[in-house]
Specification:
Elements (H helix, E strand, L loop, with lengths): L1 H20 L2 E2 L11 E11 L4 E2 L4 E7 L11 E6 L5 E8 L5 E6 L2 E3 L2 E3 L2 E5 L8 E2 L4 E11 L3
């Protein structure tokens, strides 16, 4: 019984760690989206400890070449700020095929709390429900960005 409890505790801790530290949003819809396209990312920023929306958090959507595995040389970026209710929207116009997109919060002081950095890789494909080929727009909505206090 102790072994099962230890396993369940470890599994829960691992899952919580993945949720809090950012993750990859995979969309196995098919082939890469044709360029140019517009990427629209929206959702809500939440304080994990207080379970409340975080207003005033700057989110940056950055585009990288896939071979830049260390993510040190961005191609470009778009910024957005969360509103008082925690909602945000960031829009990026992509012109290079096969790029990698990272949604990033640098960390720091917001609303009186010091937060850890947050990164989420967004993988996008043309066959997914979020892609509209008529407008060449890929939409990721209802994304929850969980910020952890330091």
């Amino acid at each position: 019984m102790k072994g099962v409890l230890k396993y369940l505790t470890f599994t829960a801790a691992l899952a919580a760690g993945l949720l809090l530290s950012g993750c990859t949003v995979e969309d196995s819809g098919g082939k890469m989206v044709a360029v140019p396209f517009t990427l629209e990312v929206s959702g809500v920023v939440v304080d994990v400890a207080g379970h409340k929306p975080v207003g005033g958090a700057e989110l940056v959507l950055t585009s990288y070449m896939p071979e830049d595995t260390d993510r040190t040389t961005p191609i470009g970026e778009a910024k957005g700020m969360s509103n008082a209710d925690g909602t945000f929207k960031v829009t990026w116009k992509e012109h290079i095929k096969g790029t990698v997109h990272i949604l990033h919060f640098a960390g720091g002081l917001v609303g009186g709390y010091n937060y850890r950095p947050y990164n989420m890789e967004l993988n996008i494909y043309s066959g997914s429900p979020g892609y509209n080929s008529d407008s060449s727009t890929y939409t990721i909505s209802d994304l929850v960005v969980n910020l952890e206090r330091r």
